[in-house]
Amino acid sequence: MADLFRTILNLVAVLAIPLMIAAFLAWGYAKKVRVYEVFVEGAKDGFNTAVRIIPYLVAMLFAIGVFRASGAMDVLTSALSPLTNLIGMPSEALPMALMRPLSGSGSLGIMTELMKTHGPDSFIGILASTMYGSSETTFYVLAVYFGSVGVKNTRHAVAAGLIADAAGMLGAVIICRILFGM
Predict the structure, then answer these.
(1) How many CA atoms lie within 13 A of 134 on its CB side?
(2) Where are the domains of the chain?
(3) Residue 163 φ/ψ, nearest 5 degrees
């Protein structure tokens, strides 16, 4: 069962992006859209957006630096470790799960430390990699994208993003337990 599941996941991983690109190009061609010109215009707009979001990005990175340097990450990890033990998640992976909604580079740094300490083929290494790919940098996305267009009231975006991140983390634990049974 696990081998079949792994084979299907590998097939989907190999084909997903090329098929999506081909589908977008075919759809544009069918709708008589000048795909290359539209792509270039979008790239120009992307550059302008990048310039507008720099202040929000700097503020977010500063807040993350303060959070990590203050020791708040260690306190939060200690408080939540009994919960992670219930779901079968190693406590070593908890900082990764907590940092991922805040910062991609911060969580990448934690994942790299986990890989160096436990090895990339260890359960913790595989779990951290799966968590990284199964979740989003929610607060970063909200700060940068909502800030760049001037959205002040995010309504339910924070709650929805954090619920999706929690589902991604829980899904990563379940999938890794099924596939790697460690």
Answers:
(1) 21
(2) 52-180
(3) -65, -40
